[in-house]
Amino acid sequence: SNLTxxxxxxxxxxxxxxxxxxxxxxxxxxxxxxxxxxSLALPSMSSSYGPRLLLADNPWxxxxxLSWMRAPAGRPGIAGAMSPTIGDLNSIVCSSTGLSLxxxxxxxLLCEYSAHCQPDCFCCDFFACDCRMQxxxxxxxxxxxxxxxxxxxxxxxxxxDVPALIPMDAT
Length: 171
Fold this sequence. Notes:
Elements: E1 5-7, E2 29-31, E3 52-54, E4 85-86, E5 111-113, E6 115-117, E7 132-134, E8 140-143, E9 150-153
Parallel strand pairs: 1-2, 2-3, 3-4
Antiparallel strand pairs: 5-8, 6-7, 8-9
């Protein structure tokens, strides 16, 4: 495709499919500034240029789904294509805190979960399963993008006992 630049800034775009840019081999720039994006999964790209994304002025929810934005630019992606770079990374602001994404430590970019089964686990359908992580009743559980951080919060919830089934790999 000869398409090199896409300008969709200052609209109300809230969702972008991970596959939106596949087949656009010459893509160099996509401008999503001033939309309604709260999250964005790492887009699959087929461009060998490592396209530049402009993403400022969106109501970002700074959680584990945005961790990829902070990774070094120009990493190889699918089929040798380069991953996108964020041209305005220092201008991405978290809607809930007003802090810039780059000022938040990666270990604080967390996503909430209620249950999670590790991909290589075969016992998750059974109650006694060591690789199934179940958030205890009355608690909130959070993980980072790589599951290296697994935070369980049960404080201030009027528990009378230590909650049962705290995941064994809780950090």
